[in-house]
Amino acid sequence: MSKEVLSFIIVPPFDQREVVEAAKDRLVNYLSHRFPGYDFKVGPFAPIGDDEAFCVLPIMNFVGDDGKSYICDPTQRWLLQEIAHTCNEFDFKGRRNYAA
Phi and psi of 81, rounded to 5°? Predict the structure, then answer.
């Protein structure tokens, strides 16, 4: 049984953690519109990846109809990079033309 990753956790860069936390609902809404069919959550800062870049973590496990846990197919690297790039483009100050 194989399945595509549909959920991601976005971890902000350390220096942006407070502004991202304040705008996390707008960011999730923005990402959901940019990437229909995918689910996003904003996680707290964790010491992973680069301190200056958004880290996109795919949720790789799911429970099948049989109640067993399975691992999703690996996510394409270009999709992870595109999601991170979209996070960088997001206007956390809330200008109207960038609001989701």
Answer: -65, -40
Q: How far apart are CA 88 and CA 100, in angstroms?
A: 14
- Say if strands 55-58 and 7-11 run parallel, antiparallel, or are unpaired: antiparallel
Percent of the chain with pLDDT over 90: 46
3-state secondary structure (DSSP) of residue 89:
helix
Q: HEC string of 18-73?
A: HHHHHCHHHHHHHHHHHCCCCEEEECCCCCCCCCCCCEEEECCEEECCCCCEEECC
Query: Running along the chain, 100 residues long, what does each successive block of 10 average in pLDDT?
Result: 85 87 93 96 72 86 86 92 94 62
β-pairing, 69-71 with 39-42? unpaired
88's torsion region: left (phi>0), alpha (psi -120 to 50) or beta?
alpha
